[in-house]
Design goal:
The chain is an alpha+beta fold. The chain has helices at about 90-95, 105-120, 125, 140-145; strands at about 5, 10, 20-30, 40-50, 60, 70, 75-80, 85-90, 100.
């Protein structure tokens, strides 16, 4: 997996698995005639590189600039759907990261409709509002049918 090389200070709690880190330790003490009994050790961390997350499952993705990618697992290659199409290696793809997986419309619609149904069932006061689509209403069923959602 390609990496971004941008050395920057980083907090310990922000370090992620796979990060290349440089840790520097400094010992500080006040000289008091030869004893170092009051030593304090401080640590600083610097992020040397972090792996660039690339698509790992087949699907349609948007890159950082809104370009459309169709990704399939064949030796870690992806095809850019527009404007300049072709096959790209992981190293080339890293320049377009981050990638956002687009979910199919029926999947998203099913999730939204489930939330509406749950709101109507778990929050009775919501169902009494005039602008809310009622559970089991023809409107809700029509929306489900339009986006290919089956109950």
């Amino acid at each position: 997996m390609p990496e971004q090389n941008t050395p920057v200070p980083i907090k310990y709690e922000d370090i992620q698995k796979g990060d290349r880190i440089r840790r520097t330790e400094a010992i500080e003490y006040t000289a008091d005639g030869g004893s170092e009994a009051n030593e304090q050790i401080s640590k600083t961390y610097e992020l040397i590189s972090r792996p660039v997350p690339l698509p790992t499952e087949p699907g349609i993705y948007l890159d950082k600039d809104g370009g459309v990618w169709s990704f399939s697992v064949h030796g870690y290659l992806a095809i850019l759907a527009e404007p300049a199409h072709g096959w790209f290696t992981a190293e080339h793809m890293a320049r377009f990261a981050p990638f956002t997986l687009l979910r199919p419309v029926p999947e998203v619609a099913a999730e939204v409709l489930a939330d509406i149904r749950d709101a109507n069932v778990t929050k009775p006061y919501v169902a009494e509002l005039p602008h809310v689509i009622k559970f089991g209403s023809p409107d809700l069923d029509a929306i489900a049918a339009k986006y290919g959602v089956t109950p």
